[in-house]
Every structure is written in structure tokens, then in C-alpha cells.
Amino acid sequence: MTSPAVSHLFDRSRLEDVAHQDEPVVSSMNWRTMLVMGVLVFAYLLLGGVLFQFLEQSNESSSHDGV
Question: Which domain of life is it from (predicted)?
């Protein structure tokens, strides 16, 4: 026998009520949140490019000197 705290998780009528809702569940993010996330991704990529350029600059200059 299941406890009352767990039995509501397996209640079939509650699952059917959720399945037959007329309104679709729509989740959207705030435009400010999307803008901040876009700026952060762009800054992350820019920082990665600058860091890569800094780390590989000595290898590039030495390979050009050998040519």
C-alpha cells in the first residue's frame, strides 16, 4: 500500500485532467533575458577568439619566419 503523500503522484484522474486541458502550455522568455543571453554568448565567443589569437600568435610568427 502506498502512502498518501505518494499516492497523489499516481492518481489517474489528475493525469487525465492535465492531459485534457484546452489551453496549450506556452513558455516564452522575456526579450530582455534573450538579449542578455545573446550578448553573453557573443562576448564569450569574442573572448575565446582573442584568447586563441594570443595563445597561437607565437606559433604563427615562428612558422612564418621559417617559410
Answer: Eukaryota
